[in-house]
Predict the 3D structure of the following.
Amino acid sequence: MSAPDREQERRRLRQLRQYREALAGFTWEVEADSSGTHLMAWRKSGDLDRVATIHPCASPDEIEVLCRALETLGFALDLIDRAAARIRELAPKPQPAEKPKRDNLGFTAKSLCEQPLFRRFLETRGDGSVPDADAADARLKELLKIKSKGEIDRDPAVKAAFQQLRNDFWLWKRGDT
């Protein structure tokens, strides 16, 4: 079985909508007389015209399908419209593109300053001991030549210097220096 031709389906649906629009306000009914069974159309003008004569061998179901075609067309198109609206309603809403998460190196620096091992590393990078997080904070700012750890995230040169210091710490911690 081949895939449906979506463009052909759209054209057919547009054509059916045009038929419904062109026949809006018409009412169809069945009339029988000595010459047979007829499909009659009440026009918008109020005129009643015979639009088809149904062959005598047509079954009652066939007559029903033919005579209710206009009503069925409207029902089917309304059903399609409601289903499409419901699908759109249930479809996931597009989410705004996530902003790429950036490193918060200022926070990373604060976390490192709280680690005793990082404080020991900082002692190798300057004069004197680094006994606590406040002393580590001061030594870090001295090494990076900054007043605030927020500068690490704002200034590319400071960011690069901090990243190098952090890499040096990792190497020192592994014993590679």
Notes: The two ends are 69 Å apart (CA to CA). The mean pLDDT is 91. The chain has two domains: 9-90, 105-174. The first strand starts at residue 27 and ends at 33.
